[in-house]
Amino acid sequence: MRIDLEKLKKEALGLISGVKDAKALEDLRIKYLGRTNGELTKLMKSLPKMSLADRRKFGPLLNSLKRELEAALENKLAALKAQSSKLKASIDITMPGKKVSLGHLHPLTMVEKEIREIFTALNFSIVEGPEVESEYYNFDALNIPKDHPAREMWDTFWLRQNEQLTNNKKQLTKSEKLKVNSSKLLLRTHTSPVQIRYMETHQPPFQIIVPGRVFRYEATDVSHETNFHQVEGLMVGKDINLANFKFVIGEFFKRLFKKNVVIRLRPSYFPFVEPGLEVDVKCVRCGGKGCGLCKESGWLEVMGAGMVHPKVFEAAGYNPRDFRGFAFGLGLERIAMIKYNIPDIRLFYSGDLRFIKQF
Ligand code: FA5
What we know:
By secondary structure, this protein is an alpha+beta fold. The protein has helices at residues 2-18, 22-33, 39-45, 52-90, 107-121, 135-138, 163-167, 174-181, 193-201, 242-257, 310-315, 332-340, 353-356; strands spanning 125-126, 132-134, 185-187, 206-215, 227-237, 263-268, 273-282, 299-308, 324-331. The chain contains 13 helices and nine strands.
């Protein structure tokens, strides 16, 4: 009997001290001291049936255990009440809530999204192409044959030779052989190869843009990265001319910079266009007077462009007499730098949150 009482005491005190709220505490009170079925109550009720000697022995023990449990229950209730009023006191429901930080898009993603939206509104379709490209699409088909000095315009990351393609040369047609011979893989140096890929499978008239990541094996500085983005544009039809190009691109910049932008076309050279152009916009910060952004020249270089070269149409399987088209390629980082006045292209990939959080 004594051992049972010790066990009961230990168990009850353990449960009471671990209780987390008043409801659970009341349940424990009923379990041990409940008037009809409480475990201790039942023991006390059995006292009259005991012998006198047992009554003398257990009577005081049961009474003392009852007092001990009552005291423990009372203390625990007081402690729970104190805890909950302390919690209430520490919550000031009139204070404004803490703002949950949701994060946001990277500035480059924001600019790319805006460019996609502007061209979509101008009825251009959005097309994508592979980042790992063959020498054929990146160079040969764009009228940049091997050993042509123009290849040096694009410092290239080359990948290992694709042996499977070169092993199966025998049954191929002449143009397929050319592709296979030029099947050395590389990381595309520009988005222009997608011009060929698209024209191989589509007939004019069409107008597309091709946003995408490109890679160049060159030293980085404030305006050059090894890994950057371009947006290619291509519009082909029966009678597309430079005036169409000037209109489309003028409209694009007006919508992007949200003001009238003056454009200047300068002669330039790219093997896949003739004539080739460099497009400048009058500095959107100083209006042409000269400032740090335009390096005091009053103009900002924004893209290469031109009328699609007949050899490019031929490589894509068109008769060059049938179609005319313009193409352009702009640097996304450079546009974002102008739009947000960012002084160094390397900030985009620095991972520095102080920079990213400004957008
Ligand atoms: C080209 O890559 C041509 N494919 C563009 C083109 C397309 C011309 C269609 C004619 C017709 P270029 O190497 O100039 O051209 O690059 C185009 C743009 O990419 C540049 O105007 C510049 O904005 C950006 N760019 C070039 N190199 C880098 C670099 N290392 N880092 C960041 N931006 C660059």
